[in-house]
Write a structure and sequence with these properties.
Helix content is 52%, strand content 13%. It is an alpha/beta fold. Strand 7 and strand 8 form a beta hairpin. It binds zinc ion. The site of zinc ion has 8 residues, from loops.
Length: 502
């Protein structure tokens, strides 16, 4: 492959960010040497690229058309083309196979459809592409998270690697971050004293900002340092290397929670504590031991309360178990429903695939039209206005098609994961009844419902949809406990889940 080096800086550009032509040439030649690329010409342009008609640019294209070269090296796509016509020419050359390689030290490009799409954006072809990209970025973030890669700025102690797009350990700072955890775990240091310690040791945030008390707290509670990632309240496994051990991290959390609420240590043995409010006054329900038994009662912290009852833990536990039974699914039935969901997923995948294929065919047609349009324009058969108007129309079509494709590819199956989790949680209810783990029962009840109150010794709460529907069905089918109505048959099952918000 033979390359042409192309450098440009316009006379109007006073932006100091842009390297001088000489500097661009030096960098590009170094880059070419490192990548072992053969150079047949170096072309420099001092004119602006905002208007079409650059001399060296035209010379370069003519060399390529004659087959003297089939690759271009430039600092950034915006050096190569600044307006849509020049950008269009380059892309057209790539489409025709005349340009086989484009290399930019600052920009990753591959002559695939995605690469061309990115190049379109870099050439500033259309605002639509950028808007569309932003949407795709949001979607991309979730995908990245699922793949275990943190999509944002690395926390202090780590660095974003622009080449691999992964998160690497910051060799300079990671040691100090680790020390921070170690100091705090001794419980001899306050957050404030640690913030001062950072100042003394010159440990600053990745953007050079000073680390203050709230930053210290954020660092000490961020599970990123043990290889996990917290994104929108959810914990994901990360691909990055941990800086500290889980043991050290847990110790720090322990120190922090002990400082936060000293008085709660005493109440640890009451499994249902923190779950209930009093029905008549709204105050919290507390627990105490009477004659060797755990009792739950209103704290009466909100003033006058009529509630005089005490509820024994065993009775409360029976009520919880009776609810759990209503939303229970045996392991055997869980297997069946999961298998049905699996089949459903296969079916949905196939449907999605055929829809996406037809959309991609439409997209291809638009691409062909765009190519033809450029040919007509380059043959001077179209005014710039006519060309722009028609192109804009085709580009919006393209964006809409891209959006539809992403929608189909992602939305089509998005309800399946929550459905699966839901089914598994029903199976968890079964297990909880068997194991009698009261602490976990409390967590389960908190997760699946709200407004847990105690009224006349009765536990009442609002289960979330679709748990409420399952519970209601069970009540209606008390005699038929083996296989609840709602999960018979996969059509009905998926239909119900979709209807109820999945
Ligand atoms: Zn009360």
């Amino acid at each position: 492959m033979k390359y042409i080096i192309y450098a440009r800086k316009s006379t109007e550009e006073d932006d100091r960010q842009i390297l001088s032509i000489e500097a661009q040439l030096v960098e590009l030649k170094e880059f070419a040497a490192k990548e072992k690329l053969e150079i047949i010409a170096s072309l420099c342009e001092a004119k602006t690229a905002k208007e079409p008609g650059r001399i060296k640019f035209a010379e370069m294209l003519s060399l390529i058309e004659k087959g003297k070269a089939d690759g271009i090296i430039s600092w950034h796509p915006d050096r190569l083309a600044r307006n849509s016509v020049d950008g269009g020419k380059i892309i057209h050359f790539v489409d025709r196979g005349l340009i086989k390689s484009l290399k930019f030290p600052t920009f990753w490009f591959e002559p695939t459809p995605q690469g061309l799409f990115m190049l379109n954006i870099a050439f500033g072809q259309s605002k639509y592409f950028v808007d569309n990209l932003r949407e795709n970025v949001k979607r991309g973030l979730r995908q990245k998270i699922r793949n275990g890669v943190w999509p944002g700025w690395a926390p202090v102690g780590y660095l974003n690697n622009p080449k691999t797009r992964m998160i690497d350990i910051d060799k300079e700072k990671s040691g100090k971050v680790k020390k921070l955890f170690e100091l705090y775990s001794t419980s001899k240091y306050t957050l404030k004293s640690l913030a001062n310690w950072c100042k003394e040791k010159g440990l600053r945030g990745n953007l050079g900002k000073e680390i203050v008390i709230s930053n210290v707290q954020k660092i000490l509670t961020n599970p990123f340092y043990i290889g996990l990632m917290k994104y929108r309240g959810e914990i994901f496994e990360g691909q990055h290397e941990p800086i500290i051990s889980k043991k050290l991290f847990d110790k720090c959390q322990e120190v922090m929670s002990k400082r936060g609420k000293v008085q709660e240590v005493r109440k640890h043995n009451f499994a249902f504590l923190g779950l209930l409010k009093c029905a008549s006054c709204g105050a919290s329900i507390t627990a105490e031991i009477q004659k060797g038994h755990n009792y739950y009662r209103c704290t009466k912290k909100k003033g006058l309360c009529q509630e005089k009852h005490y509820l024994r833990e065993e009775l409360l536990s029976e009520q919880v178990k009776s609810f759990l039974q209503k939303v229970s699914l045996s392991s055997q039935d869980t297997e069946k429903v999961l298998a049905a969901l699996e089949a459903e997923q296969e079916k949905a995948k196939q449907q999605t695939q055929s829809k996406v294929e037809s959309l991609k065919e439409q997209l291809k047609q638009v691409e062909i039209k765009l190519g033809k349009l450029l040919d007509i324009y380059l043959a001077d058969a179209l005014s710039t206005e006519e060309y722009s108007a028609k192109k804009q129309e085709l580009l919006s079509q393209k964006v809409r098609l891209h959006e539809k494709i992403t929608d189909f590819e992602q939305k089509g199956l998005s309800w399946l994961e929550p459905a699966r989790e839901f089914v598994l949680s029903l199976n968890q209810a079964t297990k909880l009844v068997k194991t009698e783990n009261k602490k976990e029962m409390t967590t389960f009840l908190k997760n699946i419902g709200s407004n847990h109150i105690l009224q006349n010794r009765q536990l009442i709460f609002l289960p979330k949809t679709p748990y409420n529907l399952v519970a209601e069905r069970s009540e209606a089918n008390q005699r038929n406990l083996t296989f609840p109505y709602w999960c018979r048959g996969r059509e009905l099952n998926s239909h119900l889940l979709k209807q109820t918000g999945f």
